[in-house]
Amino acid sequence: MQLPVKATLAEADALLSAMDAALPTGGEILRIDATPLRQFDTSLVAVLLHARRVAETGGGRIEIVGAPKKLADLARLYGVEALLPLSEPGEQAAPASTAA
């Protein structure tokens, strides 16, 4: 799944719906490509945490690749960086923590 260029509070409901439709079950991984992101706010962190929670409930997980540094900074600011498997462009995704 590819994130849009803009992911702010105004787009959060649509993004939640798209993520819910794409979320894996049964041990599958949903790879989320964050490379296109140019404009986003803290609501994206909430959307990604929701996606992680739903995926893990169904036995799957998410992997977020191409994350802009600002997204990693927001996750760190809110103390949830260990919960979001973020990797910046050119990095491999870090393993997701199972602690909630």
Model description:
This protein is 36% helix and 14% strand. The chain is built from 3 helices and 4 strands; from the N terminus they run E-H-E-E-H-E-H. It has helices at residues 12-22, 42-57, 69-77; strands at residues 6-7, 29-33, 39-40, 61-65. The strands form 2 sheets. The chain has a two-stranded parallel sheet. A two-stranded parallel sheet has the order 2-4.
Keywords:
single chain; 100 residues; alpha/beta; two-stranded parallel sheet; two-stranded parallel ribbon; 3 helices; globular
pLDDT averaged residue by residue: 87
Work out the radius of gyration.
12 Å
Number of helices: 3
- Residue fraction in strands: 5-15%
Alpha-beta content class: alpha/beta
Strand-and-helix sequence, N→C?
EHEEHEH
Please give the largest β-sheet: 2 strands, parallel
* Extended strand count: 4
Strand order of the largest sheet: 1-3
Helix content: 25-40%
Shape, please? globular
Question: Which consecutive residue ranges, at least 5 long each, have pLDDT under 50?
Answer: 93-100
Distance between the first and last residues' Cα: 23 Å
Compact summary:
The chain is an alpha/beta fold and 100 residues long. 36% of the residues lie in helices and 14% in strands.
Task: Summarize the SSE layout with pairings.
Layout: E1 6-7, H1 12-22, E2 29-33, E3 39-40, H2 42-57, E4 61-65, H3 69-77
Parallel strand pairs: 1-3, 2-4
Helix pairs in contact: 1-2
